[in-house]
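Give me the 3D structure for Transposase IS204/IS1001/IS1096/IS1165 DDE domain-containing protein.
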Amino acid sequence: MLNKMSLQHFFNPDMKVTSFKEFKDKIVIKIKSKTKKQFCTLCRSESSYHQATYKRVIDDLPLFGKPVQLIVTAYKYKCFIPDCEQKIFCEELYGFAGKYRRRSQRCEDLIAAIGLNTSCESGALICNLMGINVSGDTVIRILHHKVKELSEEKCSDVIGVDDWAYKKRHTYGTVICDGVTHNPITILDGRNGTELKKWLKNNKHIKTVIRDRAGAYASAISQVIPDAIQVADRFHLFNNFMHAVKDAINSQLPEKINISEEQDSEKNDVFEKEAKTESKKKSNK
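Predicted structure for Transposase IS204/IS1001/IS1096/IS1165 DDE domain-containing protein (285 residues):
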C-alpha cells in the first residue's frame, strides 16, 4: 500500500510529502519545500530569508490510471541587495517543474515523447487515456518549449563580443561567442551596447570579456559587471603592439635622415658590383 514514505522516493530530496489522498477522479499529493536558501532570479545573489509561502498546483504522471495533482507549498525569499529591483522572489523548483509550468518536468517529457512518435492530436488522445488531461494544442506548446530549451546555449564565464554587419555601412549587430568552445551564443541587435547590457544582466557569471576597442561595449560591461576582466582581442592586441613599436621608433629616430651625395654614389657602386658578380656567376653556370 502506498504511503508518504514510499512516495518520498519519487520526489526531490528538498521536497517533503505531507499528505496523500485518493479521490474517485484523481489523486492529490501535498508537498512542502525544505529549501533553506535560494538565488535571486534577477541579481543571482543568495538569500536564506523566508518572506512567505505560496502554493503551486502541478500535474504529475498518472498513478493507477488516475490523474495525479500535486499541491506544492514553496517559499518566497527576500533579496537584500540594495541595487536589485527584485525585492521578493519565488522559489523555483529546479529539476522538477519549470517556471510558470503547470506540469512536472517528467510529465512534460512523457507528453513530448508521445507527441513526437505519433502526432499532436493522437498523442493527446493517448495521454488522456493514460490519465493525463491534455489537448493537441498543449502538446504542440510543450514540444516548442522543449525545442527552445535545447537550442539555448549555456556559455562559460569567458565570452567574446564583437560587432558584425547585417548590411555594411547601414545595419550592424553584436555577436557573442563562448571563449572556451568558440561557439556562437547569441546575436543581438545594434552595437551601441544597449542590448548587450540586457544580456549581461541575465549572465552575471561572466568573469572575462574579450572585445574590440569600442567604447560602447566597454561602458556596458563596466556598468553591469564591473569586476569582469576586459581583454583586447587578438587583432587589436597586435594592432596596439604595432602602434606602440612605431611610436617607440619614431621617438628615438629623427624626423628626417639626410643622405649625402657621396654616400648615395658609394651605395650605387656597391649595388653595381654585386649585380655584375651575380651575372658572371650565372654565365659561368
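The chain has a mean pLDDT of 83. Let me know if you want a second pass.
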